[in-house]
Amino acid sequence: MTERPVENVWDYPRPPSIERRDEHLVVRLGGQVIADTTMSWRVCETSHPPTYYLPVESFVAGVLRPVAGTTVCEWKGAAAYFDLVSSGRTVGSAAWSYPRPNERFENLVDHVAIYPGKVDECTIDGEIVQAQEGDFYGGWITSRVSGPFKGAPGTLGW
Question: N or C: which end of the chain has fewer CB within 10 A?
Fold first, then answer.
């Protein structure tokens, strides 16, 4: 495993960047692994911890249940949402995707992002992820990123 430097989220660009990543990402819910991959896309935007988009095929069959409703990101386009279902447990709108993203983010087609605070655990190369504060953002905080991070009370205007 290659040692990666600590990144300051204030050095991330706006509009956000998108890059292919090879870290080992694991998502657990209901005591089960519901997604596992070493091929993801990472989106980084000023003041936000990175958001990871995992390939749909990295999820256990039946875990992703589409739900009604959308939101719009000025950079990526219209997002669709999923409930996550595992071991008899359902977590509402815990994941999202961009079925038809804007051209710059077309690599996100067939990829899903997870709100780490809504599942039992997300890990990157074995390190447990801390969820970005707030109920809107889905950033993954590890020892590899430093803040302060947008999302906490009083940071919405950043």
Answer: N
Give exposure, 42-73, as e/b (b: 16+ Cβ within 10 Å). Answer: bbbbebbbbbbbbeeebbeeebbeeeeeeeeb
Does the global pTM surpass 0.90?
yes
Burial of 139 (0-12, 13-18, 19+ CB in 10 A): buried
CATH architecture of 7-127: Beta Complex (2.170)
Closest CA to 100 of 83, 125, 80, 74: 80
The encoded tokens of residue 126 equal 């074995």
Each residue of 96-107: pLDDT tens digit? 999 999 999 999
Contact 132, 151 (CB under 8 A): yes
Residue whose tokens read 């995992």: 54
What letter would DSSP give residue 129?
P
Residue with tokens 């219209």: 78
